[in-house]
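On clarity, I found the account of how folds are encoded harder to follow than it need be. Since the whole study asks how a given chain folds, the encoding of that fold should be made plain. For illustration, here is how one protein appears when written out as sequence plus structure tokens:
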Amino acid sequence: MLLIAKAALVLLLSLGVGVPVTMLCERRLGARLQRRFGPRDAGPRGVLQPFADLIKLMGRQQVRSGRRAEALWAPIGALLTSLLLFATIPFGEGFSLAGQVYAGHVADIGLIGVLGVLAAFLFWPLCGAYSTGDHRALLSGVGYVSRQLAYLLCIGLSVAGVLLSSASVSLAEITLAQTRAWGGWPLWNIGLQPLGCAVFMVAGLTWAGRPPIEADAGLAGIEGAYYSGYGGGSLALWQIADHARLLAIACLTVALYGGGWHWPGLAEPGSGPLANDLVKAGIFAAKTLLALWILLWMRWSLPEVGLRRRQRLAWKVLLPMSLVNLGVTVCVIALL
């Protein structure tokens, strides 16, 4: 019963608060960087724009497909897989309530499990492309997944250094390992492994469907063809899943590299009282907003290049950088 309650709370906060805030931040920051007005009509200062977008998508015509089962389950599976990541993230060290301490996460499946969820998501674009019954959409889905595999490899190699330095696969233990200090400075992984953090953020952006290097104008339509046969509520689920993935990458960046809920002198290890636990959760939320801003800034500010250069970015830039980060981490651990 407790597990169900915690999962329901995380689901409510991620879908009801996190995803709309992510959508609004992307719209407003993108407009600001491109010198546009951005959302301003739906509610005060455009804060209701995410809900207006959802209503607009729900009003679109639903495209009928010959493979109804796959067409129904592909967007639902994509959304559930994206939301599964939030269950593994430690939003706090623990929460003291009624004399008991409850963990700050729903289920700690470990860093290997998180990587497995990231890889499992790629099944749903293939399923969605197959359900359209269009050969062009199917080829687009296969091409999309094949390009994502290179960035998944970079993500795995970049977090391998975190795994070695923390000596644990648990996200809670990785966050706790970053509470150490040296000379008054916190030993967060972003300072110890800045190269790995950069690789993780760039590769994570691409996995989230927000490549930091824009594609050609025509290529953007081709890449999205795996859900081009969707409309109405199904298309809305695809869009929500994309923003949930982006928010999950921001949360993982904070947990793996940004110290999680820790802040020197304000949020130190040790659960209780409840007010201190809520402060830790607030610190994690503030760090997540900062990480989300950095991710979106990268997504909107880098220049436009073609598909081949994006693949070169994965194989000739990010992959060597992640290997260098892993090699340096191994050497430092061996010497110490």
The chain has a mean pLDDT of 80.
